[in-house]
Amino acid sequence: MHKDDGHSEAEVGSTTVPQALRRVLDLVVSGAATNRAEIARRSGLARSTVGQQVDQLVGTGILDEVESRSSVRGRPPRVLTISPQAGTVIVADVDTSTTRIGIADLTRRVIAQESVDVWIGAGPQAVLDAVTERLRRLLEEHHRDPGRVQQVVVGLPGPVDFEQGCAVQPTGMPGWDGYPVAEYMRERFQAPVIVDNDVNLMALGESEQGAMETPLLCIKIASGIGSGLITAGGQVYRGADGAAGDIGHIRAVGGGTALCACGNVGCVGALASHKAVLRSLGIPESTDEDPLHGARELARRIADSDPTALHAVRQAATEIGEIVAMLVHMFNPRTVVLAGPLSELRDDLVSAVRAAVYQRALPLATRKLTITASRLRGSAGVHGGIALATQEVFSPAGIAELLAGSSIR
């Protein structure tokens, strides 16, 4: 069998990355090969070439080569893994009243995650200042070198221009339209930044960490209603302008005259969002003492089987189910995941959405469909952000950046 000598190179950005090195790293990252012999066999590279590339990656701290814990006779085999110290990725999943943050190594192991309570209406600078300060402290507390941050991911609860790294005409987010979120975070962490819609990150988290089948459609029911779609190939579908998934502004099947924040009437988000359910029950969304008052009070009433609250949730679920049925016909997903505060209230919402979908959608689209609540709940966006960040780090351009930050030249 012909063996590649590994001398061909790929130009990525300003760094020339040896093709052989990329192939070795790709096999280890994907888990397709865990030792030198497997790499040589799967890549077609000569063993000497594999040895040179592995030695280089190990020497610069990107890979670790350790003895296997498997019980074997004779000398224990040595296995290759991504070094936990090769770098750190940072995620900030911004929501209306709370931002969930997390840091992880390049193996996707979560090092730490927590919440930062800051109201999105305070504006982008106030929110991002608070988030940045806490992320820096997390790095310090867990002894992660801020100079080894390889990627930052920010999720925003509104339409996002993925290329420019900013929100585009979001509702309920004063001051955020066009604000250069990516540039702001890049200056503070000196690392590449991705800004994406929060439900895209949640969908990716459920797909990757929650191990749910794709195509996957995630529906977030919170202050508004949004969705994220993961294709059968594991990619996020964002649309031409970042507006894909903004389903809260589809007109509800039942119609209605409720005024939406977008200026139209009868939008499903104005009738069936968590915020709309609270309004219909006369429950304040927040108080001075408790920014999550509405969620807590509604959860209490549902737990107490309050008939008015149960009816409101089931009515909202029916409206959402009609929209989901339409999306099921359009995208034919294998899994629909319901997330957000309403999805965490017993099984009432999930059951009612499931009933509406099965009633409205044709059997061909639903025969293998699973409709379920989020497995990861509040941490889905962080896990999705980590997955997106590591995908970017180990993309061709990301590998070039990773190598440029080491002693490989």
From TrEMBL:
Any coiled-coil regions, as ranges: none
Keywords (A to Z) from UniProt: Kinase, Transferase
Record-linked InterPro entries: ATPase_NBD, ROK, WH-like_DNA-bd_sf, WH_DNA-bd_sf
Gene3D superfamilies the UniProt entry points to: 3.30.420.40, Winged helix-like DNA-binding domain superfamily/Winged helix DNA-binding domain
One Gene Ontology term of the molecular function aspect: kinase activity
Keyword field contains Kinase: yes
SUPFAM superfamilies registered for this protein in UniProt: Actin-like ATPase domain (SSF53067), Winged helix' DNA-binding domain (SSF46785)
Family per record: Belongs to the ROK (NagC/XylR) family.
The name this protein goes by in its record: Sugar kinase
Gene source species: Streptomyces fuscichromogenes
